[in-house]
Amino acid sequence: MFNQRPNMKLHLSKPQWLGVSLLILLVTLVLIEHLLYGGDPAKQDLNRALAAPSWGEPLGTDHYGRSNFARLSSAIATSLTMAVACVSSSALLGLVTGVVAAWKRGWWDRGFSWLLNMLLAMPGLILVLLFGAMVPGSFFILYLAIALMLWVEFFRVVRSKTLSLLEQPQIEASRLYGFNAWYLFRRHLWPELREDLFTLACFGAGNAILALASIGFLYVGLKPPQAELGMMMVELFRYYHQAPWVLAQPILVVFILVLSFQLLAKGKIS
Asked: Per its UniProt record, what Gene3D superfamilies does this chain match (predicted)?
């Protein structure tokens, strides 16, 4: 019983395969733009402002004559980088702090729970806005704020589930056999926690993309000339009568990004 190694497999349903396909499609577009077009997302040409899509500019240009294809590709890469970085950090930190708080109890649990309650007293997006307002345009500061916002859910779920798992008889039996803490985590805790972590990570990635786009829409996030989906929306909103396709593009990309992670969240690990 104690020597059996847990195996991890992803069983993807049709909606989950759709989510993977949408992500692959967006990444492929980024690679195509980088390898075949190589446009500068900040290069302006006012003579081509709000140009319609063409062979040279597949998605047209914005109000400054900048390539929409180049800017969308850069914005997608920025959003995915932020999502992966924030989810990876918050998941790892939530896993460690949640297990430690449940395992050690005492002041470890009280300290992390105090931090949790303090963060819960303020809506996550407001926290990100405050961080963004203090150091405008900083990718690192936004990363810290969004990762801290996501940590809350990871910590709550891991701590709660670990508390219940530590009371199960198989863990008590393993302790009586003299197995160390690493063995108990690897054999008993991790197999039960990983599915919840996978689901939280998918939802967290979508939330990170929405948070970055939201503060960009409010002009508190990244600063021009860097391309960012929310900032592109607010810049292009005034031109939706003249060139509705330029506004539709960042909105559609945000929708596809969030939808793809929402579909992936239904994945099951066994």
From this structure: MetI-like
Total length of the chain: 270
pTM of the model: 0.88
Residue 52 lies in a domain: no
Q: Is the pLDDT of residue 172 over 50?
A: yes
Measured between alpha carbons, how far is 131 from 24 in angstroms, rounded to an integer?
Answer: 32
DSSP 52: P
In the chain, DSSP assigns E strands to 10-11, 268-269
Would the CA dihedral through 12, 17, 18, 21 be positive or negative? Answer: positive
For 31, other C-beta atoms within 10 Å of its C-beta total 12
- Give, to the nearest 10 degrees, the angle between helix 14-32 and helix 244-264: 140
Q: Which of 194, 224, 206 is nearest to 63 (CA)?
A: 224
Smallest CA-to-CA distance from 82 within 40, 126, 132 is with: 132
Residues 6+ apart with CB under 8 A from 66: 41, 42, 43, 44, 45
Residue 244 sits in which domain range?
Answer: 29-37+69-269
> CB pairs under 8 A, 24+ apart, for 190-194?
190/6, 191/6, 192/161, 192/165, 193/95, 193/158, 193/161, 193/162, 194/8, 194/269
Examine residue 175 and state whether it is found in any structural domain, yes or no: yes
**What average pLDDT score do residues 37-66 get?**
88
Task: HSE, CB side, 13 Å, CA atoms: give it for residue 65.
Answer: 7
- Residue 101 domain flag: yes
Residue 210 pLDDT:
95
pLDDT at 31: 94
Determine contact, residues 212/206, Cβ cutoff 8 Å.
no
Q: How far apart are CA 53 and CA 19, in angstroms?
A: 27
